[in-house]
Amino acid sequence: MSEALARSVLAGQYRALAQAVSLVEREDPEAERLLAEIYPATGRARVIGITGSPGAGKSTLVASLAKHYRRSDKRVGIIAVDPTSPFTGGAILGDRIRMADLYTDRGVFIRSMATRGFMGGLAKATNDVVDLLDASGFDVVIVETVGVGQDEVDVIRTVQTNIVILVPGMGDDIQAIKAGIMEIGDIFVVNKADRPGADRTVTEITMMMSLVEEHGEWVPPIVKTVASQSQGIDELDAAIVKHREYLETSGELDRRNRERVRIRIETLLKEKFMDRLLAATPSFDQILDDVLRKRNNPHDAAEDVLRRVTIQSPPR
Ligand SMILES: Nc1nc2c(ncn2[C@@H]2O[C@H](COP(=O)(O)OP(=O)(O)OP(=O)(O)O)[C@@H](O)[C@H]2O)c(=O)[nH]1
Ligand SMILES: [Mg+2]
Questions:
Q1: Residues in the chain with pLDDT values less than 50
Q2: Angle at CA 160, nearest 5°, toward 154 and 162?
Q3: Which pLDDT value is given to residue 179?
Q4: Pairing of strands 161-166, 46-52
Q5: Given this model, what pLDDT does residue 39 score?
Q6: Cα–Cα distance for residue pair 34/24, rounded to 1 Å
Q7: In this predicted structure, what is the pLDDT of residue 91?
Q8: Does residue 55's CB lie within 6 angstroms of at least one atom of ligand 1?
Q9: Measured from the CB, is residue 232 less than 6 Å from ligand 1?
């Protein structure tokens, strides 16, 4: 069953892809086999992250960027990790209309992911969907996140080029933005540049950037956009292309890909290890009672569990 589906995904069939993504989202046992089968065909897509506060214009920018890529016939996958995203229906009518042609375009695949409810974690599910899109021949995969919470930061850490969006008139917010977000920005976008204060925001970002740690040889460019009017998109694309060149020539791409694989395997190991450990410890409630009653303590209890069980893989 999964072999046939894998073949259809690899052949770039849209419906098969949608079905495969649903399997991953449902955390269906079939999904793991499927992902294993398509994995050798991954590694071609450019994976771009777009992060910014609610309402900064992420979805609008993603739509403009997607349309830009479609003009050169690139296939574009969009994953919106955001419950309030227009992709899930929180949009005002204007946005819906602007995005309508993307929904009917078979060269565009749009999926939103809830920020909660994945047993194996949001980052794992997102990466699995990125793999499916990649293997299915999508040239670009754009991942939209608000960038709050560890789950989302984990997602951001696995993209190749991360775009951080800010808007004018949020000076205090910029100060409040975690330094972590400043550090992971490969490209900064000042969206809503039709509003007053865009240049001031550019200056503020430049100042903030000088405060954070070394960025290496790459100095993140700052691009002004009016996403709702598709202004600045060519400049943004040029910045993305330049960053890609930097990634490839500096060896940073290999380093990031390796880091992504490391994060993915470690996440899976933690999940599987805990599952098997708990399954092999039927007396876990007893262990909890002992610690609660001070007959044992958490540290020794954990050591006891580890000492008592041998972890064996289930038959495949
Ligand atoms: N004036 C102006 N409005 C914009 C611009 N870009 C987007 N907007 C508007 O800003 C609002 C929010 O845009 P979205 O694209 O939904 O923002 P978002 O960051 O995806 O929002 P969430 O997904 O809810 O976090 C919408 O009403 C857009 O039409 C812009 O460049 N200028
Ligand atoms: Mg959105």
A1: 85-94
A2: 70
A3: 56
A4: parallel
A5: 97
A6: 9
A7: 40
A8: yes
A9: no
Nearest to 168 by CA among 144, 140, 126, 200: 200
- 81 with 54: CB under 8 angstroms? no
Cβ 80 under 6 angstroms from ligand 1? no
Mutate to test the pocket of ligand 1, among 50, 60, 93, 113 (most ligand atoms within 8 A of CB): 60
User: Which ligand 1 atom is the nearest neighbour of the CA of 52?
Assistant: 19
CA distances from 16 to 12, 70, 72, 242, 245 (A): 8, 21, 24, 34, 33
pLDDT at 214: 64
Closest CA to 272 of 301, 308, 313: 313
Q: Which amino acid is at 162?
A: N
Tracing tokens 């974690």 back to the chain, one arrives at 121
Order of strands, sheet of 222-224, starting from the edge strand that comes earlier in the sequence: 108-113, 76-81, 140-145, 46-52, 161-166, 187-190, 222-224
Q: Pick from 173, 174, 156: which is nearest to 263 by CA? A: 156
Ligand 1 atom 17 nearest Cα: 57
* Atom from ligand 1 closest to the CA of residue 80: 23
Query: pLDDT tens, 188-236?
Result: 999 999 999 999 989 988 888 887 766 678 999 999 999 999 999 999 9
- What is the C-alpha to C-alpha distance for residues 311 and 316, in angstroms, rounded to an integer? 15
pLDDT given at position 282: 83
Give pLDDT, residue 281: 86
Give the CB-side neighbour count of residue 179, counting CA atoms within 13 A.
Answer: 8
Give 106's contacts (C-beta < 8 A, 6+ positions apart): 14
Cβ atoms of 181 and 207 closer than 8 Å: no
Q: Report the alpha-carbon distance of residue 181 to residue 155 in Å, rounded.
A: 12
Is residue 227 within 8 A of residue 64, CB to CB? The reply is yes
